[in-house]
Every structure is written in structure tokens, then in C-alpha cells.
Specification:
heterodimer, A: alpha/beta, Peroxisomal Thiolase, Chain A, domain 1, ten-stranded mixed beta sheet, two-stranded antiparallel sheet, 12 helices, about 20% strand, B: mainly beta, 2 domains, 1 helix, about 10% helix, about 45% strand, globular
Chain lengths: ~375, ~110
């Protein structure tokens, strides 16, 4: 199959309230990648990833950017909209329909589509923190994972975010701060949770032919995706995510690599417990040992500050994760640059892990 | 079907759609069976289940004890009046309804 590369990637400043429309927000990182790549306005596809319900958004963004693409559409799959949009753009290029595609993920903290309302199986406890607390309790009970280990994830990611000029939270937090933050749903506390925000990230994808003419192409070497259902009722075992395990296996297989070859990873840390489960699901730690893996320093994890530190502009998150790994692989991550990384993965979930994407990127 | 489900729920009746052909429970409520694509019809089902996990919510407007309950062939998140619970215990739905447009399913441990 023809290869597909990321030619350029960029994120905007994530904020509590930008005062901008989703269209204005979407244009910011898009203009950066268009100018940086030198492609100008000759883009074959424009895909907008968002949970905002504004109709015709990708076509509006195209017009605002002066692009007349062949393909234009909006992608929504809640918190993993971003990697879904990139998978779609990848397919458009790999199939030969397009030579280039702009994928921009964008969200407002107030977007109507940020929360799933359809799922009546959750009764009145229908916030993401409620299912997250169930995962945390189950992992603690079965494997002895502790609240301190979860808190360490938050400490690590906030520390990383302090080096990221685009992060929403740029103040480090201590273990004491996390442990003593407000209880939200036992055992989950305020600093175990990510926060909705405004933000946008964009990546420009090129065909192999086009990418070879660029300086720093980052190859998308593997994509794995799995969806098991939309409802929390469809979740199986609460200590692992079957979707993420399947997606990771498929992505590694497509890329022809093993988890031990990964240098850098963006793992979906909307809640601290999710990063711990992710260590196990993507094969970094054996089943049940995720809590103890927090301390390791072999693999650089969530160097931009993750979702905990950067904020969670739902439709933008997956694109922001891919942007971080691409920048790191290109050696362009500034103060947070990790030396010598060649292979990275992105792990992106939606709605209690009922769907998942894993991507393998490499240079 | 979803509205028919909530209509009954409003009156405190827990009836869920069951496939008229293969008998599979359609949960979350749906007018079509996801197994054989036949129509479903509301049926009264057992109110007994097993508590899988539980926690206490302090979220403003959503305070209280809640837990995942494994019913016969489906799962839901129920509320409880006390945290004097343990995983794996037998529980029973004692009340259900709609409050501020959101369903609630109140459970208690089996005596």
C-alpha cells in the first residue's frame, strides 16, 4: 500500500474561553501548516474533526482558508474524532483519491456535542467522571493500584505541561495537591480529571510522492481502530479496554513493530486511571502492573502535558496528540524535546473507551 | 421506542424493549433488535441484579452512591441510598422514574 506522511503539524493555544468561533479557531493552526509546508491552497481534502454541531463546518473553514478541496467533510466520534479524521484522510490518500489532506480538530469548551446524552443506561450518574470512577475502583480492587499512583500521573503530566506554551494548565502540581484536591467521584479527585477547553490542532497529510519532496516527513506506519458500542452498558471488563487492546495490536502489526520499540507515546489521559490502563492496553506494562509503571523513564509519555495538562478540546484532542508525536519525531518540540526518538504511538479513546484508535508514527 | 420506554419509566414502571422474534433485550432501548433486526416490544423484566462496582459521587447536582448493576442480560448504572454495599452482592430495583429529564434507577441490597 502507498505510504502516507504528516508533512506539518501545529496546535493553537488551548484556553478556557477564547472568545472565538470554531471557524476562527480552526483557521489558526491550519494557516500555520499550510504556510510551513509550502503547499499554499492546493489541498485536495479538508476534514474538520469536532463535536460542535455547526453545519457545513469543513466547507466553511475551506472557504475561509481560500481552499477549493475535492473532498470536504466533518468527522465526529466524540473524544477520538481527531484520530478518526486522520484515519479517513489517510484512506483518501492511500486510495489515490487525494494527494494531500488538511485535518483540523477544533472544539469549544461549550460545544453542544461534548457530552453523550443518548445513553439512558447510566441513569442520573451520566458524567464521564462516573464511569472513570468505576474503572478506578475496579483496577484498585483487582490489582492493588493506589490513589497515589493515579495522582503521580497527574503530577507527571502537569510537569510536562509547564514546558508547553500551548497548554491550558502551566502550573506544576504536587502529589499533595492532587491527593487533597476536591473529591469528585471516589476515588477520583479534581486533579485526576481533565477539563474541557477551547482549542484547535491541525495536521497536513501528504502522499508518499509528495512527502518525499519535504524535509521532515513523519510516516503513519500503522493504524488500528475498534468500536464496541456507544453505551457504557456495552463495556466489558472494567480493568482493561478491549477496544484499545485490539486497536494497539492491529496498529503494531501494520507497522511491523513491538511495544518495546516505542520511544514516545501520547496516551489518552482524560482521567489519570485511563493512562494507567493504557500502559497495559498498549503493551508497555503487563496486565495489572500499570500503577507501578508510572515511575518509568524508558518511554516518554504525554510530553505535551497530555489531556490533563493541555485541556480537552474534545474534537481537537486526537489531532493534538498526533501533532505532539509528529513534532517530537521531527525534533521540533522546543523545550520539551525528547532526544533520539524514532518511533511514536498515539492512543485515543472515546466515551468510556467504547471506541479506540492507536496509531504508529515513525521517521 | 425510546420515548415509550421513558413514558413507562415516568410512571415508575421498568419495562425494556425485548425482541418479538429472538427474545434479545434491546438495551439501551431501541425499536429494532440488534441481533435479528426484528421489532421489539416493551416487556416487564426481572428487577434483580448483582452489584459490579460502586462509588460515591460528590459532583454538584449528582451527589449520591451509584453503581453498575448486572441485570439478567444487560447492565445499568443504579443509585443507592447508602454506601453500605459490597461488590458481588445481590441487589434489587426498588424504584425508578424520570427526574429533570434524566432516568433514575434506585436499588437496594436484597434482604
Amino acid at each position: 500500500m502507498p505510504r502516507v506522511a504528516i508533512a506539518s503539524a501545529s496546535s493553537s493555544q488551548f484556553t478556557k474561553e477564547s472568545g472565538k468561533s470554531i471557524f476562527e479557531l480552526a483557521c489558526e493552526p491550519s494557516i500555520k501548516v499550510l504556510l510551513e509546508s509550502g503547499i499554499g491552497k492546493q489541498v485536495d481534502a479538508v476534514l474538520v474533526s469536532t463535536c460542535a454541531t455547526d453545519q457545513y463546518s469543513s466547507t466553511i473553514v475551506s472557504e475561509m482558508l481560500g481552499i477549493k478541496p475535492k473532498v470536504s467533510h466533518r468527522v465526529d466520534n466524540l473524544c477520538n474524532s481527531g484520530t478518526n479524521a486522520i484515519a479517513s484522510a489517510y484512506s483518501l490518500i492511500a486510495s489515490g483519491l487525494c494527494e494531500s489532506a488538511l485535518v483540523v480538530g477544533v472544539e469549544k469548551a461549550t460545544s453542544a456535542g461534548n457530552r453523550l446524552v443518548w445513553d439512558l443506561t447510566r441513569g442520573s450518574f451520566n458524567f464521564p467522571v462516573h464511569w472513570a470512577s468505576m474503572f478506578a475502583r475496579a483496577h484498585m480492587r483487582r490489582y492493588g493500584t493506589t490513589e497515589e499512583q493515579m495522582a503521580q500521573v497527574s503530577v507527571k503530566n502537569h510537569k510536562n505541561a509547564a514546558k508547553n506554551p500551548n497548554a491550558l494548565f502551566r502550573k506544576p502540581v504536587s502529589l499533595h495537591d492532587v491527593m487533597n484536591s476536591k473529591k469528585i467521584a471516589d476515588p477520583i479527585k479534581l486533579l485526576d480529571c481533565s477539563a474541557p477547553c477551547d482549542g484547535a490542532s491541525a495536521v497536513l497529510l501528504f502522499s508518499e510522492k509528495k512527502a518525499k519532496k519535504t524535509e521532515e516527513p513523519v510516516w503513519i506506519n500503522g493504524i488500528g481502530q475498534q468500536t464496541n458500542g456507544a453505551s457504557f452498558a456495552s463495556a466489558g471488563d472494567l480493568t482493561e479496554l478491549d477496544t484499545a487492546r485490539k486497536a494497539a495490536k492491529e496498529a503494531y502489526s501494520m507497522a511491523g513493530i513491538k511495544p518495546s520499540q516505542v520511544d514516545i507515546a501520547e496516551l489518552h489521559d482524560a482521567f489519570t486511571i485511563l493512562e494507567i490502563i493504557a500502559y497495559e492496553d498498549v503493551g508497555f506494562a503487563p496486565r495489572g502492573k500499570g500503577g507501578r509503571f508510572v515511575d518509568q523513564d524508558e518511554i516518554a509519555i504525554n510530553t505535551r502535558g497530555g489531556i490533563l495538562g493541555c485541556g480537552h478540546p474534545v474534537g481537537a484532542t486526537g489531532v493534538a496528540q498526533v501533532t505532539e508525536v509528529a513534532l517530537q519525531l521531527q525534533g521540533r518540540a522546543g523545550k520539551r524535546q525528547v532526544g533520539g526518538c524514532r518511533t511514536g504511538i498515539v492512543h485515543n479513546l472515546a466515551a468510556a473507551g467504547s471506541s479506540a484508535t492507536v496509531m504508529v508514527l515513525g521517521v | 421506542m425510546e420515548s415509550e420506554f421513558t413514558q413507562h419509566l415516568k410512571q415508575g414502571e421498568f419495562r425494556i424493549p425485548v425482541c418479538t422474534k429472538c427474545g434479545k433485550k434491546a438495551w439501551p432501548p431501541s425499536s429494532t433488535c440488534s441481533e435479528c433486526y426484528s421489532r421489539t416490544a416493551l416487556k416487564k423484566v426481572s428487577n434483580r441484579g448483582v452489584l459490579v462496582e460502586f462509588a460515591t459521587s460528590h459532583l454538584r447536582g449528582h451527589e449520591g452512591v451509584f453503581g453498575i448493576v448486572q441485570m439478567d442480560g444487560f447492565r445499568l448504572v443504579g443509585s443507592f441510598e447508602s454506601a453500605d454495599l459490597s461488590e458481588g452482592m445481590d441487589v434489587r430495583m426498588i424504584e425508578c422514574g424520570m427526574k429533570d429529564g434524566t432516568p433514575y434507577y434506585l436499588f437496594a441490597p436484597e434482604k
